[in-house]
Write a structure and sequence with these properties.
It is a single chain. The chain is of the alpha+beta class. The chain has two domains: 196 residues, BirA Bifunctional Protein, domain 2, CATH 3.30.930.10; 39 residues, SH3 type barrels. It contains six helices and twelve strands. The strands form two sheets. It has a seven-stranded mixed sheet with strand order 1-2-3-7-6-5-4. It has a five-stranded antiparallel sheet with strand order 11-10-9-8-12. Strand 8 and strand 9 form a beta hairpin. The longest helix has 22 residues. It is globular, with a radius of gyration of 17 Å. The chain starts with 5 loop residues before the first helix and ends in a 9-residue tail after the last strand.
């Protein structure tokens, strides 16, 4: 039985996220398994392999079948909620889960990546319709170096490489869902402000030379509304709401 099969996952769940739980050996995307559905808040869809997995900005997400953890969570947010903040909430949940469960210290790269030693470990994709969000999360779990995509914006890594052992993906999934439910509930009550200290501790970009579009400067803190602070070369401070963050000349993400 697969470690993501319902019979393996359900005994590991510690909260309400993951019920209902849908599982497929192959699907175009776990996002599509939940999009437009009337399933309740916290429903999860997971798959062994995606034939058309997608990442942020229309990028393709490639996976090694039965090695990665690919899943989506249906979130029914209140009207008027600042939904883009959920990328940071989900990224923080992944980072907290892998560190707490497997002693893998992880960082959050604004707005939607999770890193280990400067390499991409996981990514988050939000797709919203009204106040309903399908939050897709892809985590490299048991891939070897040769199974990771060679041509990516950031070099990739896996939990297996970080922890130096293969891991049960069901255990990883349950840990992430526990953290996601905890952080989502906190976000509902107090917004992103209550999570800022932990986000800042894991802010992979702080202090680095970066460029977002035509704006270049030094990355600072993540603001209470989820925007990234950048101190421009001429000294002005701007808050960036969206866009691709590129490292500036000579800047490198921390590797330990």
């Amino acid at each position: 039985m697969s470690d993501l099969a319902p019979g393996a996952v359900r005994p590991l769940l510690r909260g309400s996220f993951g019920e209902p739980y849908f599982y497929a050996t192959e699907t175009a995307s776990t996002q599509d398994m939940l999009a437009g559905s009337d399933h309740p808040h916290g429903t999860v869809a997971a798959a062994e392999h995606q034939t058309a997995g997608r990442g942020r900005s229309g990028r393709r997400w490639d996976d090694a079948p039965s090695a990665a953890l690919l899943f989506s969570v249906l979130l029914r947010a209140p009207p008027g909620a600042l939904l883009p903040q959920l990328s940071l909430v989900a990224g923080l949940a992944v980072a907290a889960a892998v560190e707490g469960e497997f002693s893998v210290p992880a960082m959050v790269k604004w707005p939607n990546d999770v890193l280990f030693e400067g390499r991409k470990l996981a990514g988050v994709l939000l797709e919203a319709s009204g106040s309903v969000v399908v939050c897709g999360i892809g985590i490299n779990v048991n891939q070897s170096e040769g199974e990771l995509p060679p041509e990516t914006r950031l070099p990739a890594t896996s939990l297996r490489m970080a922890a130096h052992r293969p891991l049960d993906r069901g255990v990883v999934l349950a840990a992430v869902l526990t953290e996601l439910e905890r952080l989502y509930d906190a976000w509902l009550v107090s917004g992103l402000a209550v999570l800022l200290d932990e986000l800042e501790r894991r802010n992979a970009l702080r202090g680095l030379s970066v460029r977002v579009g035509v704006r270049a400067g030094t990355a600072g803190a993540i603001a209470p509304d989820g925007r990234l602070t950048i101190v421009l070369v001429r000294g002005d401070v701007v808050l960036v709401e969206s866009g691709e963050v590129e490292l500036g000349p000579g800047a490198t993400l921390a590797t330990g």
